[in-house]
Amino acid sequence: MFWPKLHIKKYTVIFLTFFLAGVLLPGILQAQYTEATAQRGEGIYRILTRNGLPAAQYMEEFIELNRDRLGPNNTLYEGRKYKLPGKAEPDSSGNPAATVTRRFEIFGEKYADVDIIDGQLKGAVFHLVAGHGGPDPGAVGRYGDWQLCEDEYAYDITLRLARNLIQHGATVYMITRDPNDGIRDDSYLRPDKDEVCYPNLPIPLNQNRRLRQRTDAVNNLYGKHRGSFQRMIAIHIDSRSRGENIDVFFYHAKGSSKGKRAAEILQKTFQRKYDQHQPGRGYHGTVSDRNLYVVRNTRPVAIYIELGNINHTRDQQRFIIPSNRQALANWLYEGLLEDFKTNK
User: Cα-flanking dihedrals φ and ψ of residue 252, to 5°?
Assistant: First the structure.
């Protein structure tokens, strides 16, 4: 394949397949950022949108990039410069830094173009399994007149996580896939039954066949990446009584020391994030082993995640508010990055 010389201002690589996200050209994928100066009375939401960045997508990353520049409660100081996530600054010759952008239709039109920020996850392979799908909506709750279906909200959060991982150089497989539901910034995610299993298999109604199907998909892909760092991440939403408020919690396979360690890293990431963003709230998410089919039978190290109780009003805020879905994806990404770095 012919690549243009590096003095070309910008080039874009388009992939029509959504599942391959390994880093090409690692030498130019260093994180570089332009800066914007905060105006009078401006907050993070405003500075992001003023610079063409969706706040729901970039809020968390902006805070992490500028932690040492922010005021109390993440306020901005008028006249101070702040780094903008995803914005490349000029190189030493004054030309804009080269950017690799890849297109993944699975994320939907608004989010299909993905800028590769860096190669921190180069060599990591993630098999992402959003719970249920097809003829099985999973847990179903109600919020006012809305019917909330587990498969739709778990899928949206899983897509957001996939995009985060790809931005940092990972190879990502979406095991549960929807041909027309990309990342959605709506509170009510309309349910449908057209999800398929990788690569494009109808999802069976029978639960045992459904679990075996997605397990086989993961294991077949595992063989193609033998020797690589691999993780299977299953994302679900629990169903309990309306009065039971729960935090995000994690399962791993019994006897899997790597699975336990990965789950504990994710748990500690959530603890740290809650302490940072909601001091005094407390966080009670747990890590434990459980004899679940996909956890027990998939060959990569497996982590099974329950995001909350779909029937509890407070837990529902994690799902129905798009920026909260993005925050969940961001925090999961950060935990998985730490897991990868400590297993190199």
Answer: -140, 170
